[in-house]
Amino acid sequence: MQTRLTALARLTFGNLASRVYLGLVAAVAVFVAVDTAFVHHDDASLAGVWLFFVAAPTVFALMALGSLFGQEVVVSAPFLYTVLVVAVLFQACALGWFVRLLGGLGQPSHPGRTSPDS
What we know:
Blueprint lengths: L1 H12 L2 H23 L10 H6 L3 H9 L4 H4 L2 H27 L15
């Protein structure tokens, strides 16, 4: 079980693409927090929408699944924050898997064997 969790953590945090994505999400989260806490707006600010844009499309799919539990669940803050975190981590893991998949394309399937052409 621990090796699976380690492999999952490596896919999520162990490559440059995932780290850049997570850094982008963190920068947007800081922007949203600063905008919400320190900037006065005459009407509502739409800065929080950017968090959903960087977590799209997974966040919208999870919100659609959450709507099966009722509208009051979907609009609650704990549900939205949980869905946002899960979506970001899922997408970072998917990026890691994709990078791993692309990195393995140029490698031979059996490095110890020689090809019949040589």
